[in-house]
Amino acid sequence: MKNEKQTEKTSAKGYLTGKEIREIAKANKREIKRLEKYKNRKAKVEEFSTKMKNPDNILEIEDLNTYFFTEQGVVKAVNGVSFDVPKNATVGIVGESGCGKSVTSMSVMRLIQGPQGQICSGSIRFNTAEEGVVYDIAAMPIHEIHRIRGKQISMIFQEPMTSLNPVFTIGQQLDEVSFIHSPGISEEDAKAKSMELLNLVGIAMPERVYSAFPHELSGGMRQRVMIAMALIGNPRLIIADEPTTALDVTIQAQILDLLRDLKNKIDGSILLITHDLGIIAEMADYVVVMYAGRVIEKGTVDEIFHNPLHPYTIGLQKSKPTLDSASDTLFNIPGNVPNPINMPNHCYFKERCDKCTAKCSGAYPDMIQVSPTHYVACHLYGKEEQNG
């Protein structure tokens, strides 16, 4: 796009002139108008229906690009992300803050804040409970997203205090989900469903919690309410965006145990987003490692923890404090993440990597398959190295 070339041209001098800012604004306006028109179009179901590449997957994300159009240029928050979520599995997305984990999950739910934030390209294929129906969420008109959002795909947000409305009781907010996704349900049935879910998530006195306001509950209780709210629609996929960030260690363990039990009870899958490697090791079946908007390594939890390949994944694991560490200082990865507006053409981790070679100055590395389930995007594992 023109505004991307403009920011590349001006990156050397470190600032934008008024003329360049106006050119970027014009280019942004044109692209946003095109994407908004596509997002709000009228379309038949056949236009956003598709097929899964693997019928054993519940979600397939392929070459997803989610950008934010700013006056300084285009921020490539999610840049060509691809991974799968198998049925009855927990997939963990791990990476440092700003790597694109939450934007990926928001893209799946179509909750990207527009008009600046847009899904520009890619596919998000979701296998619904309806026999043979697969939706491409990225191609869905925004008014059709009610087919799956909150019902077949639900989300547990990062901070329950800001996710719950402070002026409504817990019961009112839980019942609202039933009213939206089960038209014609009576108030008595909606309340019964809410009470059933409060019991399911381990709340001892559901009657008191049902009539309470959010500020009257502890952090752990609020998070349990958010989990109950996510389960009311009987979803096939639960997206948990750092569900234990604001909780102490004891409550965190209880919430993780609860999620593990619920996955088996609802016969569904979980997409778990966190920066905590301990949670990933305990909960996940598969792991996706992200850096600067891209997937740099993915595989089973055993492969990622026992045979990490990408230097960034190795650095993440070294950064975790251990009791048997010989050093009294924490390991840190040197350098900084590159500017997301003006990403380089070579490997994004090149300037911070202690295993950098001459190849790293070339094109961005392709995703290399090193085992049936293990993939890594690094020049250290190219075809020549595999043959050697």
User: Helix count?
Assistant: 13
Class from helix and strand fractions? alpha/beta
Radius of gyration: 22 Å
Question: Strands of the largest sheet, in order across it?
Answer: 6-7-8-3-9-10-12-11
What's the helical proportion of residues?
25-40%
Task: Provide structural commentary.
With 388 residues, the chain is α/β, with parallel strands linked by helices. The protein has a domain at 290-387. Helices cover 34% and strands 20% of the residues. It is built from 13 helices and 12 strands. Strands 6-7-8-3-9-10-12-11 form an 8-stranded mixed beta sheet, with helices on both faces. A 4-stranded antiparallel beta sheet has the order 2-1-4-5. α1 runs antiparallel to α2. The radius of gyration is 22 Å and the shape is globular. The model is unreliable at 384-388 (pLDDT under 50).
Key terms:
388 residues, alpha/beta, eight-stranded mixed β-sheet, four-stranded antiparallel β-sheet, 13 helices, 34% helix, 20% strand, globular, disordered C terminus
What is the topological layout?
Elements: H1 2-10, H2 18-39, E1 57-70, E2 73-86, E3 90-94, H3 101-109, E4 117-127, E5 134-136, E6 153-156, H4 160-163, H5 170-181, H6 187-200, H7 206-210, H8 219-231, E7 237-241, H9 249-266, E8 269-274, H10 277-283, E9 286-291, E10 294-300, H11 301-306, H12 311-318, E11 368-369, E12 375-376, H13 383-387
Parallel strand pairs: 3-8, 3-9, 6-7, 7-8
Antiparallel strand pairs: 1-2, 1-4, 4-5, 9-10, 10-12, 11-12
Helix pairs in contact: 1-2, 5-6, 6-8, 8-9
